[in-house]
């Protein structure tokens, strides 16, 4: 019904490959750089103890940090609905989901720290606007149905993008992604279930669900990044096996997955040009507005200022908690 069982199968396979890689033996290569290349070519994992080119390290820090920041900022649009969820059960589920996102941020900051940068430094870079987070979290959640659309479309896009990261060449990132993808899969199902309930409710509820899908469809397509021709990092990241597929390949995979799911929901994807292309064995679709993506990435989306102001406020208000935790840790170590 939900169509992501295949993706979960890929996560299982990636987990097995990670276990095999733990006993890796790449031999016969001389020199640090040759060894690095041999490990990547053999589809094994680079670990924190290994030598790696500076640019590989920087690319990973950039991507993992951006990913971690997205998880943390991503708590805001849904957090907005915790106190207004329509039932106690829905409230408990949403609360658990938002907490999961905080956990994902934690795994990812921890993975980034293995590259020699501290979590404090990364958070500081986010607060000073020197690092990015996903464009998608700069859109507002106007109705309860948006919580469903975020689960179905945003978490759905995140899974399609992130399942291949379970095979990323950097061990700590790949391992973090296994757990994240399993949880994201559950998140996607809860969103789908919310929309399914609304779509099969009263006319008013169905209209709410449709309106929400209309607003979230194109921003979700834009999450995959600029088209391949304009992607700065894809070619190098794919050569290093950090990324396994290009932005456009993953976007296509997402569209193909959503069409069937929308049919089961009884909702329409807001694209009059969406149709099956027999030759390509894939759906033709209208591209998102990439100028809008650029504007949102550069800070001019509907909610960028609000999101960052909230994050800065939460960081300042949490200073006493960090100080107390550090004082307690110091006391215990004595
Ligand atoms: N939002 C913000 N910035 C984006 C973006 C987006 N949707 N898509 C691309 N960009 C930025 C890139 O970071 C890069 O900027 P930089 O050079 O200043 O860092 C620039 O646009 C050019 O894009 P590229 O295609 O060259 O960048 P990448 O090769 O890094 O590909 C990516 C972009 C596909 C998003 C890749 O970084 C990626 O797979 N990241 C890991 C996954 C991730 O971060 N997901 C966040 C989604 S939300 C989430 O996970 C939370 C969940 O709970 C829903």
Description of the structure:
With 334 residues, the chain is mostly helical. It contains 14 helices and 2 strands; from the N terminus they run H-H-H-H-H-H-H-H-H-H-H-E-E-H-H-H. It has a two-stranded antiparallel ribbon with strand order 1-2. The longest helix has 29 residues, at 171-199. It is globular and about 65 Å long. The model has no long low-confidence stretch (mean pLDDT 95). The structure holds 3-hydroxybutanoyl-coenzyme A. The site of 3-hydroxybutanoyl-coenzyme A has 29 residues, from helix 3, helix 7 and helix 10.
Summarize the structure.
The protein has 334 residues and is mostly helical.
Features:
single chain, mainly alpha, two-stranded antiparallel sheet, 14 helices, binds 3-hydroxybutanoyl-coenzyme A, Ferritin-like, PaaA_PaaC, Phenylacetate-CoA oxygenase subunit PaaA
Write out the distinct hetero groups bound to the structure.
3-hydroxybutanoyl-coenzyme A
DSSP summary: helix tally:
14
Helix content: 55-70%
In terms of DSSP E residues, the strand content is under 5%
What value does the Rg take, in angstroms?
21 Å
What kind of sheet is the major sheet?
A: 2 strands, antiparallel
Write down the overall geometry.
globular
Q: Element order, helices and strands?
A: HHHHHHHHHHHEEHHH
Number of strands: 2
Poorly predicted parts: none
Distance between the termini: 55 Å
Summing up helix and strand content along with how strands pair, one would put the structural category as mainly alpha
């Amino acid at each position: 019904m939900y169509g992501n069982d295949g993706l979960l199968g890929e996560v299982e396979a990636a987990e097995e490959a990670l276990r095999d890689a733990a006993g890796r033996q790449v031999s016969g290569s001389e020199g640090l750089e040759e060894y690095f290349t041999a490990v990547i070519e053999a589809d094994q994992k680079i670990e924190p103890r290994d030598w790696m080119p500076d640019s590989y390290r920087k690319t990973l820090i950039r991507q993992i940090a951006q990913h971690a920041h997205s998880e943390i900022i991503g708590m805001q649009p849904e957090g907005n609905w915790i106190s207004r969820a329509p039932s106690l059960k829905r409230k408990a589920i949403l609360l658990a989901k938002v907490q999961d996102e905080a956990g994902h941020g934690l795994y990812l900051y921890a993975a980034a720290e293995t590259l020699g940068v501290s979590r404090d430094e990364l958070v500081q870079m986010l607060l000073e606007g020197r690092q990015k987070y996903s464009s998608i979290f700069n859109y507002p959640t106007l109705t309860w149905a948006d919580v469903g659309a975020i689960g179905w479309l945003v978490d759905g896009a995140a899974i399609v993008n992130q399942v291949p990261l379970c095979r990323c060449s950097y061990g700590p990132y790949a391992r973090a992604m296994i757990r994240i993808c399993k949880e994201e899969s559950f998140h996607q199902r809860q969103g789908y279930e919310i929309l399914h309930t609304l779509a099969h409710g009263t006319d008013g509820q169905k209209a709410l669900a449709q309106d929400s899908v209309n607003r979230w469809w194109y921003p979700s397509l834009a999450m995959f990044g600029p088209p391949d021709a304009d992607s700065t990092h894809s070619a190098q990241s794919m050569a290093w096996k950090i990324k396994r597929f290009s932005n456009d390949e993953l976007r296509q995979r997402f569209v193909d997955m959503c069409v069937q799911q929308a049919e089961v929901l009884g909702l329409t994807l807001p694209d009059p040009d969406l149709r099956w292309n027999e030759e390509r064995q894939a759906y033709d679709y209208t591209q998102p507005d990439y100028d809008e993506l650029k504007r949102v990435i550069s800070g001019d989306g509907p909610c960028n200022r609000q999101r960052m102001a909230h994050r800065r406020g939460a960081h300042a208000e949490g200073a006493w908690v960090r100080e107390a935790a550090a004082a307690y840790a110091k006391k215990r170590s004595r």
